[in-house]
Amino acid sequence: MTTPSYIIAGNWKMNKTPQESIDFISALQEKLILNHKTSKDSASFNTVEVLIISPFTSLYPVKSISSQVKIGAQNLFYEEKGAYTGEISPLMLKGIADYVLIGHSERRQIFKEDDISINKKIKTALKHEFNPILCVGETLEERESGNTFSKIENQLTADLDGLTVQEIQKLVIAYEPIWAIGTGKNATPDQAQEVHEFIGNFLIEKLNSKNFSDNSKTPLILYGGSVTPQNSFDLLSKKNIKGVLVGGSSLKIDDFFDIIMNCYKVAMD
Ligand code: PGA
């Protein structure tokens, strides 16, 4: 697959040992292969990329068994080597991770990552040919005070600073309202669509300001925050929602598989 139309990404966060990761991915791939053999709808399989963003310790073992899924890391450091105890270099991920998650709200809030380091991480990820997934999103307070769009615009402006058209085109953006993460309270499809449209317009404006000539490729925008098998179809049916970033529901194989199936259904239409 060259450019997917949708991405279904499971962000495992700090969950699963290497063996649990291998067992999960083996079982998931078996279910996917069986589904592909028995379903008539083969066209949609090629447009939906399934991605597991595993802990660092699982990346190497799962990469060697992954055939139906892509593999992502949850973070990377912007230096290549040196005295940075506890950090992971892009060189250590090379050939193992296809995608790298950057600026997840848990990294921003708990580990105090700021937009300057997130911008450096994006540039490092691009330099080493990873596909960066940049996370942005507002707090409940920001939403309730009417500052959702300004928060997202500020994050995108700082995080994408200095990137070329071609670099921006390689990104994936994940809109993750912080109030929806791990709370069981997802954004409604309309609330999510409204912000996705805003992000899409922001990106097109940014690309146009840099003499964007190839209108065919703009970043996919994923929604994340309490995605479940029950709400995923309606979210994915929205025009500007091109995939989901799934935390809790990606830890249970049946739930994650059902979300992938819902995306196939949407992709078929
Ligand atoms: P959640 O997490 O699905 O558990 O809300 C999403 C995320 O943090 O990426």
Q: Can you give a write-up of this model?
A:
Helix 3 links the parallel strand 2 and strand 3. This protein has 269 residues and is of the alpha/beta class. Helix 1 runs parallel beside helix 3 (56-65), helix 8 (148-159) packs parallel to helix 10 and helix 11 (229-236) runs parallel beside helix 12 (253-268). The longest helix has 21 residues, at 18-38. The radius of gyration is 18 Å and the shape is globular. It has helices spanning 18-38, 42-45, 56-65, 90-93, 105-109, 115-127, 140-144, 148-159, 165-169, 189-209, 229-236, 253-268; strands spanning 6-11, 48-53, 70-73, 99-102, 131-136, 172-175, 220-224, 243-246. It binds 2-phosphoglycolic acid (PGA). 2-phosphoglycolic acid binds next to strand 8.
Topology of helices and strands:
Blueprint: E1 6-11, H1 18-38, H2 42-45, E2 48-53, H3 56-65, E3 70-73, H4 90-93, E4 99-102, H5 105-109, H6 115-127, E5 131-136, H7 140-144, H8 148-159, H9 165-169, E6 172-175, H10 189-209, E7 220-224, H11 229-236, E8 243-246, H12 253-268
Parallel strand pairs: 1-2, 1-8, 2-3, 3-4, 4-5, 5-6, 6-7, 7-8
Helix pairs in contact: 1-3, 8-10, 11-12
The structure holds 2-phosphoglycolic acid.
Residues 11, 176, 181-182, 224-227, 245-249 line the site of 2-phosphoglycolic acid (PGA).
**DSSP helix count?**
12
β-strand percent reads 5-15%
Look at the structure and give the CATH class: Alpha Beta
What small molecules does this complex bind? 2-phosphoglycolic acid
